Amino acid sequence: MRPPLEPQSSCANVTRDFVRSAPPRNDRYLDFFRACGNMESLELLMSGLTKTNGPRDPLELFAAIDATLNSPTLKNNTEATALLARTVPTIPDSRYRAIFVHTLGRRGANATLIALLQHDPSAGVRAAATEALAQSSAPSDYAILFEVARNDKDAGVRAKAWLALEYLNRLHDRTDRLIALNAQSDGLAIVRLFHSWLSSGRASSPSAHATQLVELARDGSVNQSIGALAAITAILDADSARMPLVRHRGDAKRARAGVSGGGHKRVALRVPRRRSRCVSSASRT
Amino acid sequence: MRFVSPAGGPAASQVRRALETQRDRIAGAALNRFAHSAALDEAAARIALSAFAAAYGCGERAQCAAAPRILRTTDHLPARLAIEASTMIAAMPGARYAALRRRQYMRAFTIAAAVLAVLLIISWLSAGPAANAVVIAALCTLAAGALLQFYSTGPYAQSWPPLRLWPASFVGDATLTMLVASIIALQAGSGRQRAVIAIVAAEALWWLIPAVLAAAGITLQMQHYSAAYDFVLWLAPIAGALPIPFAAWAIEGLAASRAGLPV
């Protein structure tokens, strides 16, 4: 049941008091802001966040803003999104900019995300913008993501940008996949990109595939070695085969159709029906 | 959307067979990667160790007959990696980690007891009561340590670490403290002096020994995981601070009386 809407003048006044540090009377202040849902209230809250030494705890402000944005009136409101897009880059504390990046991503403000990705001085914000773009359903300018992946000054941002491109199915070149793989520092990302890189090449036979994996584990780069070891473990340990390593979009359709593409797919795609059902239930968890 | 499982399908069995012929090379590569995993994240280190275990046929649910061989190898790694490997292997259902370590500790305690028994006979036959008292104190401490180790610890890797890291565990620290404190106390003249020295020395050593061991690289802290959140780890030293000095006093008193020193 929706909470009753507050009278708009009361909303603005209470919000003004709230921003000026009047303590919330109880935990239900979020319900109040969710019920308010007006632009004036949102503007006041955002202005509280842009002050460097505002009296109100920024996390409380963020919670209030989030509640306001989730109100029935502002949930899909483009004006509210525009206000958010205007204000977020002016928030002085990069931690709160990074938090709002995901809100912007959910509201489809890709232009602002790209601007933050290109110009924000904080690596944390740029990394968050990369993640948000990777999860965004709206089409975005992949050239900028490639640019960031290749040239950002922070290694973590570069790694996230490559990973975002992989998730968005934009990595088609084997060389790019190898660069993306070697840029990663997170074990799970390494496994994902290793599989992507490996399946873009062709192994002539199962034994050649096995030899390739062992060679990579022994003499490949650190990330190739980790990826190869993960793949070897999955093959050798029959039980861990039920514990999936990585997932690919659209593979289920191809698997159902029985299509086999790259050299590795011959190994990977012919999964017995029972096992793939078990695996897809794991993906939901 | 699909999870890629390279272990599925008929071709996978061929790849598996081809990999099985190269188990030693895989194990070597995996161990090498794990040994140099200090700069990698925990997932990467876990992947390397899992591959090492998988090369010997040990997996998530399989029986792990090669667990002793795996542990023998990982126990030689630097302390932080060795305890991390032990912790991960202890979590493998088929590894029977605690049983393996029990046998290993049993052997070590038996050898130590045998050596001390020989020393006891030698000290009875040819040395004075002071040397005799030291050997008796060492035997008593060993017995106390063995009792604590075998009857008061759970099956966890932190309780049964690789043998060379045992002094860093709670029981190992307690045993070492009681041993050194009682030996120091036995050098004093009168019984009252010895009691005071035993208690004070044990209290000081109880806090000093872990720091010295950590400085020497003997630690139970893992390379990629932290147990700092574990309340027991904070509580254990405080819990031991009172009984350990009195235990040292008791051991010193018993050794002195058995060796015929003035009580």
- CA-to-CA gap between the ends of chain B? 79 Å
Shape of chain A: elongated
Low-pLDDT segments, ≥5 res of chain B: 1-8
Which H/E pattern describes the elements of chain A? Answer: HHHHHHHHHHHHHHEHHH
Overall structural class of chain A, as computed from helix and strand content, comes to mainly alpha
- Largest sheet of chain A, if any? none
Mean pLDDT of chain A: 78
* Unreliable spans of chain A: 239-285
Sheet of most strands of chain B: none
Question: What would your notes on this structure say?
Answer:
The complex is a heterodimer of chains A (285) and B (263). The radius of gyration of chain A is 24 Å and the shape is elongated. Chain A has a domain at 187-285. In chain A, helix 11 (174-183) runs antiparallel to helix 12. The model of chain A is unreliable at 239-285 (pLDDT under 50). Chain A has 285 residues and is mainly alpha-helical. In chain A, 66% of the residues lie in helices and 1% in strands. With 263 residues, chain B is mostly helical. Helices cover 69% and strands 1% of the residues of chain B. Chain B contains eleven helices and one strand; from the N terminus they run E-H-H-H-H-H-H-H-H-H-H-H. In chain B, helix 2 runs antiparallel to helix 3 and helix 7 packs across helix 11. The longest helix of chain B has 30 residues, at 97-126. Chain B is elongated and about 80 Å long. Residues 1-8 of chain B have low confidence and may be disordered. Chains A and B meet through helix 12, helix 13, helix 14, strand 1 and helix 15 of A and strand 1, helix 1, helix 2 and helix 3 of B.
What are the SSEs and their pairings?
The complex is a heterodimer of chains A (285) and B (263).
Chain A: H1 8-19, H2 29-36, H3 39-50, H4 58-69, H5 78-87, H6 94-106, H7 110-119, H8 123-135, H9 142-151, H10 155-167, H11 174-183, H12 187-199, H13 206-219, H14 222-236, E1 246-248, H15 251-257, H16 265-268, H17 273-284
Helix pairs in contact in A: 1-3, 2-4, 3-4, 3-5, 6-8, 7-8, 8-10, 9-10, 10-11, 11-12, 12-14, 13-14
Chain B: E1 2-4, H1 10-20, H2 23-35, H3 42-55, H4 67-74, H5 79-90, H6 97-126, H7 129-152, H8 170-186, H9 191-215, H10 231-241, H11 243-259
